[in-house]
Amino acid sequence: MKYRTLGKSGLKVSEIGFGAWAIALDWWGKKVDDDEAIRMLKRAYDLGINFYETADIYGKGKSEKLISQVFKDMRSDVVYSTKWGYDMYSTKQIGHSELPQKHNQEFLQFALSQSLDRLQTDYLDVYSLHNPKMDAIENDKLFSSLDDFVKNGTIRSHGVALGPAIGWKKEGLEAIEKRNITCLQTVYNILEQDPARDFMQAAERRNVGIMVRVPDASGLLTGKVNSNTKFDKNDHRSFRKQEFIIEAMQKIEKMRPLASSKGWNITELAIKFILSQKQISVVLPTMTSIEELELFASFSDGKYLNSTEIARMEEMYEKNFYVEPVAK
Questions:
Q1: Which residues face 183 on adjacent strands?
Q2: Reading across the β-sheet that carries 183-187, which strands appear in turn?
Q3: What is the mean pLDDT of residues 236-263?
Q4: Which pLDDT tens digit goes with each residue over 90-120?
Q5: Tens of pLDDT along 48-79?
Q6: What SS3 class is residue 37?
Q7: Domain 3-222+265-305 CATH superfamily
Q8: Domain ranges across the chain
Q9: Where is average pLDDT lowest: 36-45, 90-99, 135-144, 248-257?
Q10: Contact, 158 vs 175, CB < 8 A?
Q11: Cα–Cα distance, 64 to 46 (Å, whole number)
C-alpha cells in the first residue's frame, strides 16, 4: 500500500481508503452483516489501509459505531474521516429521499459531539460538510467555527463532500478557493471526468487533496454491471440511465488496448488512471466483500500511467471515446 499527504493537513493516508457506507446500508446490491463488516475493517487494516471514510447518516450512526468497535484501541494508527449536515435526529428517512440539511453552527456542535461519541474518540482527523448547498459554502461564521475546532484540536482538518449526484461545480470551486479546507470529495472516474478536472486544477493551487468516490462508475468499470443488469429499486445505482450504461460499454471496449498494453484489466486501468494524478489523495471504492477489498488494495503499487497515457485517456474522454451517443 502506498500513502499520500491529504492536502494541507499533513495527514498520511492510504491511496485506497475504506468507504464505510456499504457496511451500514444495503444500497449497493448487498446487505453486509455486522460480523462481515468487522472482518472487512480488520482485513483493510492488515492490507495497509489507514483511512476510514464514513458519515453520521450511514445507518444512523451504525457505520461510525462499527469503525470504533474495531479501532478504539488503535486510534493513533488510523485516520477517521466523517461527515455531517443531515438532520437524521428529528426526521425519518424514507427510501433514498434526501433528509433536511442543517449546515449551521448550532447543529455543527451537536453533530460533532454525537460523532465523537459514536467513534469513541476525542478528536476527528477530517470532518466534512455532507453534500452542502451554496448557502452553506458561503456561511462565513460556519467555517470560522470549523477553524476554531481545528485550533482547539477537536478536529484536525475539515473538508467538503459534494453530492449527492455528480456535478456541484460552483460549490466545489467556491469551497476550494474561499475556504480553509483540507480536502474535497467528488465523483471521478474515466467515464465521468468532469467537473473533477476543474477541481484538481484549483486544488493544486490551494493545496487541497481530492477524495474520489464512484471510481468504478457504479460497477461498470469492474464488469459487475452491464446493459443487462437489473437493479433492485433499493439499489442506489438504479438512477443510472440505460442509455448511459449502453454507451459506457462501448467506451470500455475502446479502453482495452491501453489496459492490455500495460498488462491490466479494465478495473485496474480505472483505478490507476485516478492514482496517476498527483492531486488525488485517496480513492474510495464501494466494497461489499473481502474479495473486493483485496482487489482494490492491490492496485496501490506505484505503477501508474505516465503523462502521455493520461493525456491519451483525457483526449478519448473529450471525444466521447469515439463512440456515437446513444439515442434517448
A1: 159, 209
A2: 18-19, 51-53, 79-84, 126-130, 158-161, 183-187, 209-213, 280-284
A3: 86
A4: 877 666 667 889 999 999 999 999 999 999 9
A5: 999 999 999 999 999 999 999 999 999 999 99
A6: helix
A7: NADP-dependent oxidoreductase domain (3.20.20.100)
A8: 3-222+265-305
A9: 90-99
A10: no
A11: 19
Among residues 63, 78, 71, 72, the alpha carbon closest in space to that of 32 is found at: 63
Q: Say whether 233 sits in a helix, a strand or coil.
A: coil
Exposure letters 105-121 (e unless 16+ CB within 10 A, then b): eebbeebbebbbebbeb
With beta carbons less than 8 A apart as the criterion, state whether 249 and 220 touch.
yes
What pLDDT score does 67 carry? 98
Cell numbers at 219, concatenated: 460497477
Whole-number Å distance between alpha carbons of 13 and 128? 16
pLDDT > 90 fraction of the chain, expressed in percent and rounded:
81
- Helix then strand count (H, E) for the chain reads 11, 10
